[in-house]
Specification:
single chain; TIM Barrel; Four Helix Bundle (Hemerythrin (Met), subunit A); 3 domains; 7-stranded mixed sheet; 44% helix; 13% strand
């Protein structure tokens, strides 16, 4: 994880009558209805309601809904060529329809026909001419056109990529399931704004996805037109040349990576492995056999001057390159905080930190040239010493990263590399680290602005990121930010967060009620309330915090004003999720279960601090009553029962942690290998034991009261005094 540290162009008329470059999502919300094959006419926000906007992610550059067809008689998928890519795209469409319980390859009377055809065929040219749609040069590689026909749709593209992405849009044009399903007909012309649209996934700090879950990720990434997946490794890729750092059961094998690459290829996703090669190497350098390579003893940073450093990096990337056919490798090289604090101290004092850093990157670039790959690296240096960027090898790709919204824009992170003549990808984040639920709005704003500015300044790619610093992140919690990242990278200009959130629940989960979108907004509100926390919304910290500790009591003073509203937002989200489940069948059940768990954990933060205050107050009252010789004595009992009895507050908190422990374990096992799960289970076990112990202490105090009519002072039981 990294430390947190709208352009208007002259419009050019194209195709369907929309404007190229200046079409905002607000304008695209106003899609008109026109007869099939009719010439396109411009439609503005003043003439069409946003209610006519179709639920599509990413939203196409140009789209007009023309009607709707029932799918009660099923669907037939036709191909105009028998090529492998066409067949795969057609089968992907059939699989999606069958999942929705829609009959495919139907022999019923007048089924809906969906045709996949190449742009250079006679029929495709005729359809395009009749619809008055043309292919631009920018569309050739990944663009597509969807043309409505009397009994269905035609998907027209110049490449396999374009046909595949057209299929992904058609899958979203299907509304409902089974005999009640229908197909929105639309005239669409679409192509991406950015060539590379990727997702970086942290596999080095606890959660390590199973191969099956990674395949699920690939399918889902592809459905929203991502085309790069970058698994992040520190010590969790098993090398034959350097095997000791990878833990048994806690690493991907190169054969796993090879299988994943083969699986991803027909989904048009390129795997770009990232192996950290400068910083973030503690789990390698804490092995004694490698400790001599470290800048500081058993630290996290390679010493650049060590003669064995470059050969080690060459060994790693040679093995990766042997199984990775793509043109890129990612060397990381970020957050080298220890540089200059150990073995390179004198050199850094003499030359400066920047030159020492850049020299080592240059050596890596030269050493890895025989692999014939272009190297990506994290672009921290632009922020720290932008004047030195010109000294970097121009064939490397800089990936500047910023994980918070920047009201003034992101130009300063990108421009130093652009001015130096280097290619750039921009890296925002879903903002999930150290969170029991991602800080979604913070992440969406970061993605929105960074990708917008990257496009304007000529960045060729975006690499959205998810980090697991806490060792307990669940990727199934991150999909909202992941899908928005895919949307922003495909769409031209600034993507609208509001319009995205109006479509996300329908497109991703198949929710027709709007309740999942409402639940998402409730959880975003809950996270917003917690931003007053001095730990910057680190909800993990709050979730595990002991509210009776000095730190917990200090935190309680900040939290008390928002605890009620926090719980109302979280519990409202739970109700909305349940109501959406009841209303219609939903997709992505594991992501929904993770969302529900996130809501429960947010709610429990509020509950824990509320009940803590109640127990503190109850014991203070019981102590005063006992000291004053309370008559009748059941007054003291009633206060103590509130703390530790069948329905006592200690038991309430214990029960919450016990429930979450089981739900979390289920969620982990749906995604990840068993490795490192016990690290999180141990935290649950300690939390459960803590409140069992405290309940027992209060129960013992109650027994003492019955025998002696005396209670021990609160501090003897670890109970704080009431807040003044």
């Amino acid at each position: 994880m990294k430390v947190r540290v709208r352009t208007t162009l002259r419009p050019k008329r194209v195709g369907l009558g929309f404007t190229q470059n200046t079409v905002s999502l607000m304008t695209l919300a106003c899609i008109g209805i026109f007869p099939i094959y009719a010439a396109a006419t411009p439609v503005t926000a003043e003439t069409v309601s946003s209610a006519d906007r179709m639920k599509l992610l990413p939203y196409p550059r140009e789209a007009r809904k023309t009607g709707s067809l029932s799918l009660a008689h099923g669907v037939v998928v036709h191909l105009d060529a028998n090529e492998a890519g066409d067949r795969f795209a057609a089968q992907d469409l059939r699989d999606a329809l069958q999942t929705r319980k829609i009959l495919t390859d139907s022999t019923k009377y007048e089924p809906v026909v969906i045709e996949l055809m190449h742009q250079d065929t006679i029929k495709a040219r005729a359809l395009l001419s009749r619809a008055e749609v043309t292919f631009q040069d920018a569309m050739e590689e990944e663009g597509y056109v969807i043309v409505p026909q009397k009994h269905g749709l035609a998907i027209i593209a110049a490449t396999d990529d374009g046909l595949f992405y057209g299929v992904q849009t058609v899958k979203q044009l299907v509304v409902g399931t089974g005999n009640n399903a229908s197909l929105n007909q639309a005239l669409i012309r679409d192509w991406p704004a950015m060539r590379y649209r990727g997702m970086s996934d942290d596999l080095s700090r606890g959660p390590i996805a199973t191969l099956d879950y990674q395949k699920q990720q690939i399918r889902t990434f592809a459905a929203y037109k991502l085309n790069v997946y970058s698994p992040y490794f520190e010590n969790t890729l098993q090398y034959s040349s350097n095997p000791i750092a990878a833990q048994p059961g806690g690493a991907m094998r190169l054969d796993d990576l090879k299988q994943l690459i083969a699986y991803a290829k027909p989904y048009h996703i390129m795997i770009v492995p990232e192996q950290e090669s400068f910083g973030h190497l503690h789990n390698l350098l804490n092995r004694e056999i490698y400790s001599g390579l470290a800048e500081t003893p058993h630290g996290s940073v390679l010493a650049p001057g060590d003669p064995d450093a470059i050969p080690l990096i060459q060994q790693w990337f040679k093995e990766i390159a042997e199984v990775t056919p793509g043109p890129f490798l990612h060397i990381g090289a970020d957050e080298t905080f220890e540089l200059g604090k150990g073995r390179t101290r004198k050199e850094v004092q003499r030359r400066g930190l920047g030159p020492v850093y850049i020299d080592f990157l240059t050596k890596m670039d030269q050493a890895l040239k025989p692999l014939h790959k272009q190297l990506l690296f994290w672009g921290d240096v632009a922020t720290n010493e932008p004047e030195l960027v010109t000294k970097l090898p121009k064939d490397m790709i800089a990936v500047p990263w910023v994980y918070d919204p920047e009201p003034a824009g992101f130009d300063r992170y990108i421009l130093p590399f652009q001015k130096a003549g280097m290619e750039t990808w921009v890296a925002p984040s879903v903002n999930n680290w150290n969170r029991i639920y991602p800080d979604t709005m913070r992440g969406l704003l970061d993605i929105q602005g960074f990708v917008r500015d990257g496009q304007r300044l000529g960045s060729t790619g975006t690499l959205n990121t998810a980090w697991n610093d806490d060792g307990e992140g669940l990727f199934d919690l991150d999909w909202c930010g992941v899908v928005f990242g895919a949307t922003a990278g495909w769409q031209q200009g600034e993507s609208s967060i509001g319009e995205f959130l109006q479509s996300y629940g329908t497109v991703f989960y198949g929710d027709t009620t709007g309740k999942i979108d409402q639940a998402q907004r409730e959880l975003m509100e809950a996270q917003t309330l917690l931003k007053g926390d001095p730990n910057e919304g680190s909800t993990d910290h709050l979730y595990w915090m002991d509210p009776w500790s000095p730190e917990g009591q200090a935190e309680a003073r900040t939290l008390r004003p928002i605890l009620h509203d926090l719980r109302i937002h979280a519990e409202t989200a739970l109700i909305l999720i349940a109501e959406a489940h009841k209303a219609s069948p939903l997709r992505e059940q594991s992501a929904l279960a993770a969302m529900e768990l996130g809501a429960r954990r947010l709610d429990s933060i509020g509950m824990k601090f509320q009940l803590s205050d109640e127990m503190i107050a109850s014991y203070a009252k019981a102590y005063v009553a006992a000291k004053n010789g309370a008559v009748p004595s059941d007054e003291v009992d009633s206060y103590l029962y509130e703390i530790a009895d069948t329905n006592g507050r200690c038991q309430d908190i214990r029960n919450e942690y016990a429930l979450h422990r089981e739900l979390y374990k289920q969620a982990w096992n749906r995604e990840n290998r068993p490795f490192a799960l016990q690290n999180v289970m141990g935290r649950y076990d300690l939390a459960i034991q803590l409140w069992i112990t405290r309940g027992n202490l209060v129960a013992s105090a109650m027994d003492s009261w019955h025998r002696t009519h005396m209670l021990p002072p609160a501090e003897q039981l670890g109970i704080p005094l009431p807040a003044q």
